[in-house]
Amino acid sequence: MRSYSAEYLDLTPPVHRGLKEIVDKSIFRKDLNIIAAKIDARKTQTIARALRDKAILHIRSYRNVEPAGDGKTLVLLKFPDEALLPPDVREFLEKEGAEFVPYTMELDYDHWTADDILQSVLPEDLAEQHPSGFAMVGHIAHLNLPEEYLPYKHIIGQVILEKNSAVRTVVNKLQTIDDADHVFRVFKMELLAGVPDYVVSHMEQGCKFTFDFTEVYWNSRLQTEHTRIVDMLKPTDLVADPFAGVGPFAIPAAKKGCAVFANDLNPSSYHYLNKNTISNKVKDLIVSSNEDGRKFIRYVFRQAWDMPMPPHRPKEKGESRRAAKRPPAPALARWAPEHARKRITHFVMNLPQSAIEFLDAFRGVLAPANMGDRPLSGEYSDSGSMPMIHCYCFTRFLEPAEAEADIRQRVEAGMGHPLGEEVSLYNVRSVAPNKDMYCISFRLPYEVAFAAA
Questions:
Q1: Same domain, yes or no, for 83 and 123?
Q2: Residue ranges making up the domain that contains 61
Q3: Residue 57 annotated in ligand binding
Q4: How many domains does the chain have?
Q5: Is the domain of 260 the same as that of 373?
Q6: 164 is in an annotated binding site
Q7: What letter would DSSP give residue 98?
Q8: Does residue 265 have a known ligand-binding role?
Q9: Which of 20, 46, 63, 99 has fewest C-beta within 10 Å?
């Protein structure tokens, strides 16, 4: 038996173009006249299974099988009258002893999706491409409305709020990344619907992040990229994150076993980074700071040498349960100094607007002028022991070859030295019609790290 669409039925809500607010939801009530198959209740499962994707009507929040009394059941079909029943459907139902009866479905506001309602209330020239998509950050739905939709922003917010049970707050971003606070990457936003509660709890990579969305930078669209970088790290790695934010790279990396020096200039980001470090139980593996990124790059090599991080120790099966029953050991007794992690193996530089401008800070970071007389030969002895740098940036070049040439030229100019052979480029996402975000990963050239001042 073939499948049939509901092409004979008008399943759209009543049209009320130009509304700025929905006050009376009864205006969306609509009667839908269809036919139903009245069958022996004992055959309900058999018939429903056979017709599920072929002839039964499926409407949000509406049961398509109803009791009819006297041991009978009504199976609602996607046809307005008996004359339109396809022959194979009719033959099957008649063999099962079905009786065809008219049925009126009473639909209201609750039966339609946000897309359906917005298409019925926005002006016709805006309805087709209406912005019902949004990013979720905890309980906040975050929109970036084009200018032509701003007169209808509150009804858009209202519909999104009412049609998504996980949403309690709907906001609209008022700036682009270029116009936002250049230092902290914090966007101005306006409340469209719901409660003005901007402190969220957001889950990503099995970690819980708490932060005030109005005070820090967070982009849920980067979750895949956060995971990509963390997946390439080894549990034994020592990672430096100059622009750590509230910890989307640092905390999952520490959960994996990496030790991390995490820094952010924004005091609010630093506050929530510390809070998230504690709540995710990785305090022993993250050292946080609230400094300028360039200053951090210069001193973190010294910090890693003078205050080495504990070695990675794989957990034994059942260890977490045993550990909970005994008091913690003194910190210094947990690991031997000779096993400490001193050598930084990765830098994550997620500041695409300007991270390349910080690459000059790597010149001479391992030279005596920065490191003094620390004996580095055992750790940073050759080119292969230099850290990998994962530097984010934007480019206006959309062709991959042109984008690569543009990014390489800017990175090499920033460091004052050509890149080596160990280089890869990854297109993270498109952020605007003529603007892509990339991550360039490369090994810090030995000559740059040990360059004279």
A1: no
A2: 28-108
A3: no
A4: 3
A5: yes
A6: no
A7: -
A8: yes
A9: 63
